[in-house]
Amino acid sequence: MNPTIRLPGLAPLFLVLTLTILGVLIVLPLGVVFASALSQGLAAYIEPLTHPDALAAIRLTLTVAAISVPLNAIFGVAAAWAIARFEFKGKSLLVTFIDLPFSMSPVVSGLVWVLLFGAQGWFGPWLQDHNIKIIFATSGLVLATVLVTLPFVARELIPLMQDQGADEEAAALTLGAGGFTTFWRVTLPNIKWALLYGVLLCNARAMGEFGAVSVVSGSVRGLTTTLPLHVEVLYNDYEFVGAFAAASILAGLGLVTLVLKSVLEWRHSGELSASRRH
Question: What is the second-level CATH architecture of the domain 44-276?
């Protein structure tokens, strides 16, 4: 049980300070986005969202997320299992590399792929000779998104699996279960809520990523602009209602992510409480 510290007079001050900061940094900007998007009425709000460029941006955003998130989920589970269950040389270095995208600018993450696969990059001439396009194409957007969202699933699973230990998996193997069966019947049920939580955060970042994808996309309207890039294009063209309408979709996705996050935390805490009672 967590101890409660009583500091008379400070609790209301900290609460007011916290609510004020949240209001200024989160609630107020969200309110401005939705108010600006609906400032000219519902018809003016819907019209730019049904434009072919907007629909193409939404489709591309969903496509990039649909590819990058499962890839990072697979990587996260594999990395967490290797780090939590085995001892090997370079283990701490592997953990450091997993965390690297957190400390690296997203623009640098995009520039890495340009230096590798751009027209003047290391593999650019070979790719051009074989008519393979990565930069300014969907594949480049996927690579940039995978890199910036790489740590989310792994960092949710690693501490959980280290804390759980391998006793249940060892028992299953002792009873004759194979490695695949042990994973599906023992490991996966034990990590399912943390895995879903990591996937949720990864998906939210993938759909809202701007810096890395802006470097590799070329911002070709209707072809390589994701929804965040589409917001920038509209705003730079002084189409403010359309820009805020597109931004409201991203803000709405953020709110949905917040709700789902709370649900997952509630379900996970409920299962933990039930397991402790038994």
Answer: Orthogonal Bundle (1.10)
